[in-house]
Automatic annotation (TrEMBL), chain A:
Family stated for the protein in its record: Belongs to the phenylacetyl-CoA ligase family.
Protein name as annotated: Phenylacetate-coenzyme A ligase
GO molecular function per UniProt: nucleotide binding; phenylacetate-CoA ligase activity
Key word Nucleotide-binding present: yes
E.C. number(s) listed in UniProt: 6.2.1.30
A Pfam cross-reference name: AMP-binding
Keywords: Ligase, Nucleotide-binding
Lineage: Bacteria, Pseudomonadati, Candidatus Hydrogenedentota, Candidatus Abyssobacteria
Domain AMP-dependent synthetase/ligase: 80-284
Assembly behavior: Monomer.
Signal peptide positions (record): none
Organism domain of life: Bacteria
TrEMBL record, chain B:
Domain ACT: 5-81
Top-rank taxon, per record: Bacteria
InterPro entries the UniProt entry points to: ACT-like_dom_sf, ACT_dom, ACT_dom_pair
CDD domains: ACT_Bt0572_1 (cd04908), ACT_Bt0572_2 (cd04882)
Coiled coil residues, start to end: none
The name this protein goes by in its record: Amino acid-binding protein
Pfam families for this protein: ACT_8
């Protein structure tokens, strides 16, 4: 199902024309209204009028998360505060949060994009949507909320937390669509299993999951345990929140809403644009946002783009599932390791739980990786050797995938912190000493 | 003649075994036998408790990984050679012991050992034929 066929299925040629018109306009506007951007362009001797083709985009400087912090909180806003009707912000767990402002037209756009997202996932006005993304400064809650309302679905704004209550509401209200982080959906599954609830008797059929990287194996697990079809959505506070890209029913990558967001793939080390089809860092330019339009924002998300037309009819480029972030990436003894790779190993091993945490330490000159995995009822055996076999199996699989030796430690159930929002998967102790 | 044993996963950290006994204490469940097995970084506590099903559910409710397994309880004369003679009988019956530990005994002239074996039904049959005294769960939980 397609919410906005006129735009989502427009020809690539017309799309490029539209993108160019919008790019010229946004560069002019940001140059005029954001002193920080103007001084960066002036330093390069670049005028907005020099942007004459989509390829000229590469002349423009990148903007990094670090710069967003330098201009905290409102330094990159391109409209007066009186036009800004809402503020959202990132969690700021790694420093100052990123603050995003929205004008009324930005909010309308966001609701439109989320309507596209929800529709692509198969949600209609007949659905009851349980929105378990956190409401508040986090963009997930209100983003889903307005998108689902826009298409006329019944929204249950339950927010995150209180999993027993989530399940009660799901059952009693006949919820058909669940929106939350993938890790929280597994927690819901876990509690449902503990309560002996039969998911087959629930009306739940679709999950709209995002806000953290997850693997294909984890998708299978969620689908089996919750008896639903799970879809991946993508977004960032810096761009708009959720509503940047979404899977369709064919699930062959996430369609980027290219009429509003112009994507590029670059080599994260050199900043050079990479040829089509290569994996690298995703860079996004906001083409139409008014209050907080970032130009060439480096997302730090690693993916690759496909441009062939999708069977669903959408012409928008599809980005592959994000396998990790450049800043989630751990370099352990010279090997690039993404937490999602470890997760795919764990999900692939029947006895192991995908509740895990990676602890990286420095032992003399050597980096060591410890993978803590929760023992649950399914895994637990009265025999030491069976448990040791699971440890060995996980270590062996990690070794064959990544070529590094990991110490696998089993830990007691429910001792790894569960997330309402994003899971904390990595503790890197090398930075502390 | 089969006895239910309750096993719980433990990390090798101070206080984790105490957390298990705390649940049993709160539920007023008496321990009849206990043994700890450990590997490098985790352990398993195996227990014979007077009401194993209740112990299982209180420990599950407290988020422990718990398993019930079947073991046998063998009565052994509390004197030199007591265990030795029983083991010889077990050997003659071709029984392989996975692990064993003894019951916390009150004053008497008998000791009781808990055995985990492969093929428990077959073992019980053989031991009965060999006149080894096996205790029922009632005897182990209450009457000792």
């Amino acid at each position: 199902m397609i919410w906005d066929r006129q735009h989502e299925c427009m020809s690539r040629k017309r799309l490029r024309e539209l993108q160019l018109t919008r790019l010229k306009s946004v560069v002019r506007r940001v140059y005029k209204n954001v002193p920080y951007f103007r001084s960066k362009l002036d330093a390069l001797g670049l005028k907005p009028a020099k942007i004459k083709s989509l390829d000229d985009l590469r002349k423009l400087p990148f903007i990094t998360k670090h710069e967003l912090r330098e201009t905290y909180p409102f330094g990159l806003f391109a409209t007066p505060m009186k036009d800004i009707v809402r503020i959202h912000s990132s969690s700021g767990t790694t420093g100052k949060p990123v603050v995003a402002g929205y004008t009324r037209s930005d909010l309308n756009l966001w609701a439109e994009l989320m309507a596209r997202t929800m529709t692509a996932g198969g949600t209609t006005a007949d659905d009851v949507v349980q929105n378990a993304y956190g409401y508040g400064l986090f963009t997930g809650g209100l983003g889903i909320h307005y998108g689902a309302e826009k298409i006329g679905a019944t929204v249950v704004p339950i927010s995150g937390g209180n999993t027993a209550r989530q399940l009660m509401v799901m059952e009693d209200f006949g919820v058909t669509v669940l929106a939350c982080t993938p890790s929280y959906s597994l927690q819901i599954a876990e509690v449902a299993e503990e309560k002996g609830m039969d998911m087959r008797k629930m009306k739940l059929r679709v999950g709209i999951f995002g806000a953290e990287p997850w693997s294909e194996e984890m998708r299978k697990e969620i689908e089996e345990r919750l008896r639903i079809r799970a879809l991946d959505i993508y977004g960032l506070t810096e761009i708009i929140g959720p509503g940047v890209a979404s899977e369709c029913e064919h699930r062959c990558g996430l369609h980027i809403f290219e009429d509003h967001f112009l994507p590029e793939i670059i080599d994260p080390d050199t900043g050079e644009a990479l040829p089509e089809g290569q994996r690298g860092e995703l860079v996004i330019t906001c083409l139409t946002k008014k209050a907080f339009p970032v130009i060439r924002f480096r997302t730090r998300d690693i993916t690759r783009l496909h441009h062939e037309k999708c069977d669903c009819g959408r012409t928008f480029a599809r980005m592959e599932r994000v396998t990790g972030r450049t800043d989630d990436m751990l370099i352990i003894r010279g090997v690039n390791v993404f937490p999602s790779q470890i997760e795919s190993v764990l999900v692939g091993i029947e006895e192991a739980e995908p509740h895990y945490q990676l602890i990286v330490r420095k032992d003399g000159p050597m980096d060591t990786l410890e993978v803590q995995v929760e023992v649950d009822q399914r895994l637990f055996s009265d025999e030491i050797k069976k448990l040791q076999n699971v440890e060995r199996k996980v270590a062996h699989e990690i070794n064959s995938l990544l070529g590094i030796h990991a110490k696998v430690t089993l830990v007691q159930p429910k001792t790894i912190e569960r997330s309402m929002g994003k899971a904390k998967r990595v503790i890197d102790m090398r930075k502390e000493g | 003649m089969k006895i239910k044993q309750v096993s719980v996963f433990l990390e090798n950290k101070p206080g984790h075994l105490r957390a298990v006994t705390e649940e049993l204490t709160k539920a007023k469940l008496n321990l009849r036998a206990i043994s700890l097995a450990d590997s490098e970084d985790f352990g398993i506590v195996r227990m014979v408790v007077e009401d194993p099903d209740k112990a299982y559910s209180v420990l599950r409710a407290a988020n422990h990984a718990v398993q019930e397994t079947e073991v046998i309880a063998v009565e052994v004369p509390d004197q030199p050679g007591g265990l030795h003679n029983v083991l010889r009988t077990l050997e003659e019956c071709g029984v392989n012991i996975e692990y064993m530990y003894s019951v916390l005994e009150r004053k008497s002239n008998k000791a009781v050992i808990i055995l985990r074996v492969e093929g428990i039904d077959e073992v019980i049959r053989k031991l009965k034929t060999a006149n080894v005294k096996l205790l029922s769960s009632g005897e182990v939980y209450n009457a000792l």
